[in-house]
Write a structure and sequence with these properties.
The complex is a heterodimer of chains A (about 475) and B (about 350). Chain A has helices spanning about 115-120, 145-160, 185, 200-210, 230-240, 240-245, 275, 290-300, 350-365, 385-395, 410-420, 440-450, 450-460, and strands at about 5, 15-25, 30, 35-40, 45-50, 55-60, 65-70, 75-80, 90-95, 140-145, 165, 190-195, 215-220, 255, 285, 305-310, 320-325, 335-340, 345-350, 370-375, 375-380, 395-400, 430. The N and C termini of chain A lie far apart (about 90 Å). Chain A has three domains: about 5-95, Beta Barrel (OB fold (Dihydrolipoamide Acetyltransferase, E2P)), CATH 2.40.50.100; about 140-325, Thiamin diphosphate (ThDP)-binding fold, Pyr/PP domains (Rossmann fold); about 335-460, Rossmann fold. The radius of gyration of chain A is 30 Å and the shape is elongated. Chain A has a seven-stranded mixed sheet with strand order 12-11-13-14-16-15-21, sandwiched between helices. In chain A, strands 7-2-4-5-9 form a five-stranded antiparallel sheet, with no helix packed on it. Chain A is built from 13 helices and 23 strands. Chain B is an alpha/beta fold and about 350 residues long. Chain B has a single domain (about 25-200, about 215-265, about 285-335), classed as Rossmann fold (3-Layer(aba) Sandwich). Chain B contains twelve helices and eight strands. In chain B, the strands form two sheets. In chain B, strands 2-1-3-4-8-7 form a six-stranded parallel sheet, sandwiched between helices. In chain B, strands 5-6 form a two-stranded antiparallel sheet. The longest helix of chain B is centred in the N-terminal third of the chain and has 26 residues, at about 25-50. The chains are: A alpha/beta (about 475), B alpha/beta (about 350). The interface between A and B is large, with 86 and 84 residues.
Chain lengths: ~475, ~350
């Protein structure tokens, strides 16, 4: 049988060359798989090299003490009994490391892919054409946001046995905020499941159930507690479809109240919009009205992807008109122009839409016509609707409850600059929560949150009417 | 050496076998197990070799030494059951019957890999074969596996989920949240702790105040056993008890497999935390493949039959290695696919 060459092995993701420190076998020795044949010094450690193939070491090509031996260079020849392919050696254990071992970062191993070619397939600029008008769903009736959410879950659970709700106090207690009221009675304990206080555990469980083809709705009592489970939301739910090359799906909804409640201080008052919207592999929805809540939650439950559905406790009790049509549903990824105007564009989501609407009324009294855009979905962001509006008004004010730094307003403004820079007649202004943890004291809490007066003031500034 | 590998339970199991109510394993079954263990061993050696040639990048956690655990357990389940594990997953995929070509091509980051080259060593899946990954975050697969078992419970079928994790992961909080949930809902999940003694470089004695990990489910009433994970027959026997218990709707079961990895945690592991002699002793005295080989010869199989298996395995592995090098890298368009399922909602 022909001899095989033993090649200089790579002993870490970053190694390109090393020193052949010592041969432990000499020419003529018989080696078996697993035998240590040599020691190699890398930048990190001295490692032993094991034989992979069986045979007689016929020739040593690189004498010991040689420095700078390139990875994959032949270092010896083996007259094999085993046969098989190109014989390299395998890295084994060291005896005297030169430095403490640290796991090498794999990212360094390969050059970055060629950016220009890769970018070709990247998401496109927003479309220029006019928006399709929202479908007319016919008659409406007043409904609270709380009832709208419950009705959406009930409708989807009736339609699909794979849909179930799990979370703390969702069943017997009827929901910590009464959103799941009545669901246990209608669907029973198999489909409306009380969990122990174990966000990390039951979120992972629900993601596993979604991998297996079920359609879980996970209620977080508030989104603050989703931080206990955020590894499962990002690393498992959002990334597995990509990491499996499209094989594994994760149709799941994570929902619950997000943002500032009232007088519960910093750990229970936080907006996670930009946290989740940052991550590819998720869809992120933030409804304002009852119609948003019902139509978008139904779409989220039907969606084949993981959806983070950010509700707001303060909105639960508010009443809005909502279509009564049995099949009412809204598309994820479409913003809504809540109010048309020609002078300034106000972009908001969730509870901040209310502030923007209030501000628009006040602005109208001052002769400024504001266009209010309710984003509805944060990822994928409907930037086309925003850009279309800014090209008309030439002014942008973003409104959100979350912190300003790297927030949703920052993203909206950046995308407007990318797509409509030449249409802007004033620098965009962002209204957001203050850059502090939420205080408890009533006066300080009020100061920490954005209000309609600030929006009015900002709109006047960008229209040079201040 | 593996301290306490000869545990009371494992010894008791062997005694039962010795009394001989029924043979623990037939010659055909053992030959099959030998073949599957050898396939994993040779595959992993080849992976180490390709890594050395720079064809595999990043992390690469080899299963060499632990083959009896996954091969023994796989003999206890049926199609439709699920398997999930951590990042040391090549052996589990081969045991599930996944194509060695697709696994090796994923290691080399090629389009022919199970994840089209986008997952790598730690992230491969085959729903067809019941394999749900391949998870890189230590302990995360324990909650996910509990969820796969939940899906069985929800659907009212009799399938079970084998959920593997290391003794290192057994210190993660979500493991115990999962134990509680599984026991509370009586979910059909077999938790398998592969105790190979070292979580990266930290020995189990330095990491876990619990001295008997098989008792870690006791507060939730989860029955547990310590098993000699270097003996495929002992693994199969314990696995059958565990799987039968779960399939019957009794809830979760815990197996602590006393095993050992011969190679480093990942590829660049200088192994200062254990002596070469310790590794050598395990290889020479406790190796699962050698043990099975001797047993097969005692059972009357001849060397020629074993040689035939060796040759068959070698050819499969070489074919996989050839495929993994010939398969092209994923096209650049793959960068943007599979981020979301691009379909209308149901």
């Amino acid at each position: 049988m022909a001899g095989t060459q033993i090649l200089m092995p790579a002993l870490s993701p970053t190694m390109t060359e090393g020193k052949l420190a010592r041969w432990l076998k000499k020419e003529g020795d018989t080696v078996k798989p697993g035998d240590v044949i040599a020691e190699i010094e890398t930048d990190k450690a001295t490692m032993e090299v094991e034989a992979v193939d069986e045979g007689v070491l016929t020739r040593i090509l690189v004498p010991e003490g040689t420095e700078g031996v390139a990875v994959n260079a032949p270092i010896a020849e083996l007259n094999g009994g085993g046969g098989g392919g190109g014989g390299s050696a395998a890295p084994a254990a060291d005896r005297a490391p030169a430095a403490p071992a640290t796991p090498a970062a794999p990212a360094e191993a390969r050059p970055a892919p060629a950016a220009p070619a890769a970018r070709a397939a990247a998401p496109r600029a927003p479309e220029e054409r006019a928006a399709a008008p929202e479908k007319d769903w016919g008659p409406t009736r007043p409904l609270t946001v709380r009832e709208a959410l419950r009705d959406a879950m009930a409708a989807e659970m009736r339609a699909d046995d794979r849909v179930f709700l799990m979370g703390e106090e969702v069943a017997q207690y009827q929901g910590a905020y009464k959103v799941s009221q009545g669901l246990l009675d209608e669907f029973g304990p198999r489909r409306v499941i009380d969990t122990p206080i174990s966000e990390h555990g039951f979120t992972g469980l629900a993601v596993g159930a979604a991998f297996a083809g079920l359609r879980p709705i996970v209620e977080f009592m508030t989104f603050n507690f989703s931080m206990q489970a955020i590894d499962q939301i990002i690393n498992s739910a959002a990334k597995t479809h990509y990491m499996s090359g499209g094989q594994v799906r994760c149709p799941i909804v994570f929902r619950g109240p997000n943002g500032a409640a009232a007088r519960v201080a910093a750990q229970h008052s936080q907006d996670f919009s930009s946290w989740y919207a940052h991550c590819p592999g998720l869809k992120v929805v933030a409804p304002w009205s009852s119609a948003d809540a019902k139509g978008l939650l139904r779409a989220a439950i039907r969606d084949p992807n993981p959806v983070v559905f950010l509700e707001h406790e303060i909105l639960y009790g508010q009443t809005f008109e909502c279509p009564i049509a049995e099949d009412f549903v809204l598309p994820i990824g479409k913003a809504k122009v809540e109010r048309e105007g020609r002078d300034v564009t106000l972009v908001a989501h969730s509870i901040a839409v209310g502030l923007a609407m209030q501000a628009a009324e006040e602005l109208a009294r001052a002769g400024i016509e504001a266009e209010v855009i309710n984003l509805r979905t944060l990822r994928p962001l409907d930037i086309a609707t925003v850009v279309r509006s800014v090209r008309k008004t030439n002014r942008l004010v973003t409104v959100e409850e979350g912190w300003p730094f790297a927030g949703i307003g920052a993203e909206v403004a950046m995308q407007v600059i990318e797509h409509a820079f030449d249409w802007l007649d004033a620098p965009p202004v962002r209204i957001a929560g203050r850059d502090v943890p939420m205080p408890y004291a009533a006066n300080l809490e009020k100061l920490a949150l954005p209000n309609a007066a600030e929006v009015v003031e900002a709109a006047k500034r960008v229209t040079y009417r201040a | 050496m593996v301290q306490g590998a000869e545990t009371a339970t494992a010894t008791a199991a062997r005694r039962r076998t010795a009394r001989g109510k029924e043979p623990a394993i037939t010659r055909e079954e053992l030959l099959r197990a030998y073949r599957d263990m050898l396939l994993i061993r040779r595959f992993e050696e080849k992976a180490g070799q390709l890594y050395g040639m720079g064809l595999i990048g990043g992390f690469c956690h080899l299963y060499i030494g632990q083959e009896a655990v996954v091969v023994g357990m796989q003999m206890c389940i049926k199609p439709g059951d699920q398997v999930i594990t951590s990042y040391r997953d090549h052996g589990h995929m081969l045991a599930c019957g996944m194509d060695p070509r697709g696994v090796m091509a994923e290691l080399t980051g090629r389009i022919g890999g199970y994840s089209k080259g986008k997952g790598g060593s730690m992230h491969m899946f085959s729903i067809e074969k019941g394999f749900y990954g391949g998870h890189g975050i230590v302990g995360a697969q324990v909650s996910l596996g509990t969820g796969l078992a939940f899906a069985n419970w929800y659907r009212g079928n009799d399938h079970v989920c084998l959920t593997y994790f290391g003794e290192g992961a057994s210190n993660q909080g979500q493991v115990y949240e999962s134990f509680n949930l599984a026991a509370l809902f009586k979910l059909p999940v077999v938790y398998i702790i592969e105790n190979n003694k070292y979580g990266m470089g930290t020995s189990v004695e330095r990491a876990s105040a619990s001295k008997d990990l098989s008792k870690n489910g006791a507060p939730w009433g989860i029955p547990g056993e310590q098993v000699d994970g270097m003996d495929v027959i002992a693994v199969k026997e314990a696995g059958e008890r565990a799987v039968a218990y779960c399939r019957a709707g009794n809830g979760p079961y815990l197996l602590e497999m006393k095993t050992y990895r011969y190679r480093g945690h990942s590829m660049s592991d200088p192994a200062k935390y254990r002596t070469r002699e310790e590794v050598q002793r395990m290889r020479e005295q406790r190796d699962c493949i050698e043990t099975a080989r001797k047993r097969l010869l005692e059972m009357g199989l001849d060397e020629a039959a074993l040689k035939k298996v060796d040759d068959e395995v070698k050819a499969i592995v070489q074919d996989a290695a050839d495929f993994a090098q010939a398969s092209p890298e994923p096209p650049e368009s793959e960068l943007w696919t599979d981020v979301l399922v691009e379909e209308e909602g149901r």
